[in-house]
Amino acid sequence: MKNTFNQIALSISKINKTHLQFALMLMALTMLVLGAGAPEDIDGVGR
Amino acid sequence: MFRALWLVFLGFLPQLAVFYLPYTRRLLSDEFASGSLIFSQVILLIFSIVNIRLPGMPVFLIGLSLNLTVILANGGFMPLTMDAAAKLVDPSVLSRLPLGERLSNASKDILLPESKIILPWLADRFVPPPFMPYRFAFSLGDVFIAAGAFWMLVGKQPVPALVSGDA
Predict the structure, then answer these.
(1) All structural domains of chain B with their residue ranges
(2) Spans of all domains in chain A
Protein backbone atom coordinates (compact mmCIF):
# COMPACT_ATOMS: atom_id res chain seq x y z
CA MET A 1 0.00 0.00 0.00
CA LYS A 2 2.77 2.36 1.05
CA ASN A 3 4.75 1.36 -2.01
CA THR A 4 1.77 2.15 -4.25
CA PHE A 5 1.35 5.52 -2.58
CA ASN A 6 5.03 6.27 -3.10
CA GLN A 7 4.75 5.36 -6.77
CA ILE A 8 1.75 7.67 -7.20
CA ALA A 9 3.57 10.47 -5.38
CA LEU A 10 6.63 9.94 -7.56
CA SER A 11 4.50 10.06 -10.72
CA ILE A 12 2.79 13.27 -9.61
CA SER A 13 6.12 14.87 -8.77
CA LYS A 14 7.20 14.30 -12.37
CA ILE A 15 4.37 16.48 -13.65
CA ASN A 16 5.90 19.82 -14.46
CA LYS A 17 4.78 23.04 -16.11
CA THR A 18 5.44 21.66 -19.58
CA HIS A 19 3.11 18.72 -18.99
CA LEU A 20 0.36 21.01 -17.72
CA GLN A 21 0.80 23.39 -20.67
CA PHE A 22 0.64 20.49 -23.07
CA ALA A 23 -2.54 19.12 -21.43
CA LEU A 24 -4.12 22.57 -21.51
CA MET A 25 -3.18 23.03 -25.14
CA LEU A 26 -4.65 19.63 -26.04
CA MET A 27 -7.87 20.46 -24.20
CA ALA A 28 -8.12 23.85 -25.91
CA LEU A 29 -7.42 22.31 -29.30
CA THR A 30 -10.11 19.68 -28.72
CA MET A 31 -12.65 22.34 -27.78
CA LEU A 32 -11.58 24.44 -30.74
CA VAL A 33 -12.10 21.58 -33.19
CA LEU A 34 -15.42 20.52 -31.63
CA GLY A 35 -16.63 24.11 -31.67
CA ALA A 36 -15.47 25.01 -35.16
CA GLY A 37 -16.25 21.77 -36.95
CA ALA A 38 -19.69 20.59 -37.89
CA PRO A 39 -19.46 16.95 -38.94
CA GLU A 40 -22.77 15.10 -38.66
CA ASP A 41 -23.09 11.65 -37.18
CA ILE A 42 -26.68 10.70 -37.96
CA ASP A 43 -26.35 7.07 -36.98
CA GLY A 44 -28.66 7.40 -34.00
CA VAL A 45 -31.13 9.79 -35.61
CA GLY A 46 -34.56 8.53 -36.48
CA ARG A 47 -34.31 5.31 -34.46
CA MET B 1 1.10 28.56 -26.46
CA PHE B 2 -2.23 30.07 -27.40
CA ARG B 3 -2.95 33.72 -26.76
CA ALA B 4 -6.31 34.72 -25.23
CA LEU B 5 -7.06 31.09 -24.34
CA TRP B 6 -10.14 32.17 -22.42
CA LEU B 7 -11.83 32.84 -25.77
CA VAL B 8 -11.85 29.11 -26.50
CA PHE B 9 -13.67 28.38 -23.24
CA LEU B 10 -16.06 31.28 -23.85
CA GLY B 11 -16.66 30.09 -27.39
CA PHE B 12 -17.13 26.43 -26.58
CA LEU B 13 -19.34 26.87 -23.52
CA PRO B 14 -22.55 27.73 -25.44
CA GLN B 15 -22.08 24.69 -27.71
CA LEU B 16 -21.43 22.49 -24.69
CA ALA B 17 -24.81 23.46 -23.29
CA VAL B 18 -26.70 23.46 -26.58
CA PHE B 19 -25.33 20.35 -28.32
CA TYR B 20 -23.34 18.17 -25.95
CA LEU B 21 -24.98 18.11 -22.50
CA PRO B 22 -28.14 15.95 -22.73
CA TYR B 23 -29.95 17.70 -19.89
CA THR B 24 -29.53 21.27 -21.16
CA ARG B 25 -29.81 20.65 -24.89
CA ARG B 26 -33.36 19.30 -24.67
CA LEU B 27 -34.50 22.42 -22.81
CA LEU B 28 -33.25 24.90 -25.38
CA SER B 29 -35.09 25.98 -28.52
CA ASP B 30 -33.75 25.71 -32.07
CA GLU B 31 -33.55 29.50 -32.29
CA PHE B 32 -31.42 29.63 -29.16
CA ALA B 33 -29.26 26.78 -30.47
CA SER B 34 -28.75 28.56 -33.77
CA GLY B 35 -27.85 31.85 -32.09
CA SER B 36 -25.46 30.04 -29.74
CA LEU B 37 -23.77 28.25 -32.63
CA ILE B 38 -23.18 31.50 -34.48
CA PHE B 39 -22.03 33.34 -31.34
CA SER B 40 -19.72 30.47 -30.50
CA GLN B 41 -18.17 30.31 -33.95
CA VAL B 42 -17.66 34.08 -34.10
CA ILE B 43 -15.77 33.91 -30.77
CA LEU B 44 -13.65 31.03 -32.07
CA LEU B 45 -13.04 33.02 -35.25
CA ILE B 46 -11.73 35.93 -33.16
CA PHE B 47 -9.52 33.49 -31.24
CA SER B 48 -8.15 32.12 -34.51
CA ILE B 49 -7.36 35.62 -35.77
CA VAL B 50 -5.61 36.49 -32.49
CA ASN B 51 -3.48 33.35 -32.88
CA ILE B 52 -3.03 33.54 -36.63
CA ARG B 53 0.78 33.30 -36.36
CA LEU B 54 0.64 29.75 -34.98
CA PRO B 55 1.48 26.98 -37.46
CA GLY B 56 -1.69 25.62 -39.03
CA MET B 57 -3.92 28.37 -37.70
CA PRO B 58 -4.42 30.06 -41.11
CA VAL B 59 -5.67 26.73 -42.50
CA PHE B 60 -7.90 26.25 -39.47
CA LEU B 61 -9.23 29.80 -39.90
CA ILE B 62 -10.16 29.10 -43.53
CA GLY B 63 -12.13 26.02 -42.43
CA LEU B 64 -13.91 27.85 -39.66
CA SER B 65 -14.76 30.72 -42.01
CA LEU B 66 -16.17 28.32 -44.61
CA ASN B 67 -18.35 26.58 -42.01
CA LEU B 68 -19.55 29.86 -40.52
CA THR B 69 -20.33 31.24 -43.98
CA VAL B 70 -22.54 28.31 -44.98
CA ILE B 71 -24.19 28.22 -41.57
CA LEU B 72 -25.05 31.92 -41.78
CA ALA B 73 -26.26 31.56 -45.37
CA ASN B 74 -28.64 28.73 -44.45
CA GLY B 75 -30.44 30.11 -41.45
CA GLY B 76 -28.06 29.32 -38.61
CA PHE B 77 -27.41 25.60 -38.97
CA MET B 78 -25.10 23.51 -41.13
CA PRO B 79 -27.01 22.08 -44.09
CA LEU B 80 -26.70 18.35 -44.70
CA THR B 81 -27.39 17.18 -48.25
CA MET B 82 -29.92 14.42 -48.90
CA ASP B 83 -27.30 12.53 -50.92
CA ALA B 84 -24.88 12.45 -47.99
CA ALA B 85 -27.65 11.42 -45.59
CA ALA B 86 -28.70 8.64 -47.98
CA LYS B 87 -25.19 7.18 -47.78
CA LEU B 88 -25.34 7.09 -43.98
CA VAL B 89 -28.78 5.72 -43.10
CA ASP B 90 -31.35 3.27 -44.46
CA PRO B 91 -33.93 4.71 -46.89
CA SER B 92 -36.69 3.93 -44.39
CA VAL B 93 -34.93 6.02 -41.75
CA LEU B 94 -34.15 8.76 -44.25
CA SER B 95 -37.79 9.09 -45.26
CA ARG B 96 -38.68 9.82 -41.62
CA LEU B 97 -36.09 12.56 -41.16
CA PRO B 98 -37.65 16.03 -41.17
CA LEU B 99 -36.65 18.23 -44.11
CA GLY B 100 -35.48 21.71 -43.21
CA GLU B 101 -35.33 20.98 -39.47
CA ARG B 102 -32.61 19.91 -37.10
CA LEU B 103 -31.98 16.18 -37.15
CA SER B 104 -31.98 15.99 -33.35
CA ASN B 105 -31.41 18.29 -30.42
CA ALA B 106 -27.75 17.23 -30.44
CA SER B 107 -27.25 18.17 -34.07
CA LYS B 108 -25.79 21.27 -35.73
CA ASP B 109 -27.28 20.13 -39.04
CA ILE B 110 -30.50 20.59 -40.96
CA LEU B 111 -31.41 18.17 -43.71
CA LEU B 112 -32.02 19.89 -47.06
CA PRO B 113 -32.20 18.91 -50.71
CA GLU B 114 -29.19 20.28 -52.57
CA SER B 115 -31.33 22.64 -54.66
CA LYS B 116 -32.42 24.47 -51.50
CA ILE B 117 -28.95 24.85 -50.01
CA ILE B 118 -27.16 28.15 -50.42
CA LEU B 119 -23.47 27.49 -51.16
CA PRO B 120 -24.03 23.71 -51.38
CA TRP B 121 -20.33 22.94 -51.85
CA LEU B 122 -19.68 24.16 -48.33
CA ALA B 123 -22.39 21.99 -46.75
CA ASP B 124 -21.98 18.61 -45.01
CA ARG B 125 -21.90 16.63 -48.24
CA PHE B 126 -18.91 14.31 -47.98
CA VAL B 127 -18.85 10.90 -46.29
CA PRO B 128 -15.86 8.69 -45.44
CA PRO B 129 -15.13 5.68 -47.67
CA PRO B 130 -17.32 2.62 -46.97
CA PHE B 131 -14.54 0.63 -45.25
CA MET B 132 -14.40 3.13 -42.39
CA PRO B 133 -16.51 1.93 -39.46
CA TYR B 134 -17.41 5.38 -38.12
CA ARG B 135 -19.98 6.96 -40.42
CA PHE B 136 -20.49 10.71 -40.57
CA ALA B 137 -20.96 13.57 -43.02
CA PHE B 138 -18.47 16.40 -43.20
CA SER B 139 -17.92 19.64 -45.05
CA LEU B 140 -15.03 21.21 -46.92
CA GLY B 141 -14.59 23.47 -43.91
CA ASP B 142 -14.24 20.42 -41.66
CA VAL B 143 -11.38 19.18 -43.86
CA PHE B 144 -9.51 22.48 -43.45
CA ILE B 145 -10.23 22.45 -39.71
CA ALA B 146 -8.87 18.92 -39.28
CA ALA B 147 -5.79 19.73 -41.37
CA GLY B 148 -5.16 22.95 -39.46
CA ALA B 149 -5.58 21.26 -36.08
CA PHE B 150 -3.22 18.44 -37.06
CA TRP B 151 -0.68 20.96 -38.29
CA MET B 152 -0.98 22.90 -35.03
CA LEU B 153 -0.45 19.74 -33.00
CA VAL B 154 2.60 18.69 -34.99
CA GLY B 155 3.89 22.22 -35.42
CA LYS B 156 3.96 22.89 -31.68
CA GLN B 157 6.27 19.89 -31.14
CA PRO B 158 5.89 19.59 -27.36
CA VAL B 159 7.02 15.94 -27.27
CA PRO B 160 10.82 16.50 -27.13
CA ALA B 161 10.37 18.74 -24.09
CA LEU B 162 8.33 16.03 -22.36
CA VAL B 163 10.91 13.36 -23.16
CA SER B 164 13.80 15.45 -21.91
CA GLY B 165 11.83 16.22 -18.72
CA ASP B 166 11.35 12.52 -18.02
CA ALA B 167 15.00 11.59 -18.50
Answers:
(1) 6-166
(2) 2-36
Assess A41–B contact: CB distance below 8 Å, yes or no.
Answer: yes
DSSP string of B110-135? EEE-GGG-SSGGGSB-B---TT-SS-
Query: Model confidence over A1-47: pLDDT tens digits?
Result: 677 877 777 777 777 788 888 888 889 999 999 999 877 877 655 44
Per DSSP, the three-state class of B137 is strand
B8: chain A residues, CB-CB within 8 Å: 28, 31-32, 35
Cα separation, A36 vs B144, whole angstroms: 11
Q: How many other CB atoms are there within 10 angstroms of residue B47's CB atom?
A: 28
Q: Over the stretch B12-39, which tens digit does the pLDDT of each residue have?
A: 999 999 999 999 998 999 999 999 999 9
Say whether pTM exceeds 0.90. no
Give CA torsion, residues B124, B59, A37, B7, to 10 deg: -150
ipTM for this model: 0.81
Residue A18 near chain B (CB below 8 Å): yes
Residue in chain B closest to A22 (alpha carbons) equals: B158
Nearest CA to A38 among B112, B97, B126?
A: B126
Give the per-residue pLDDT at B31.
93
Closest CA to B76 of B130, B40, B125, B128: B40
Residues of A in contact with B139 (CB under 8 A): 38-39
CA–CA separation, B143 vs B43, rounded Å?
Answer: 20
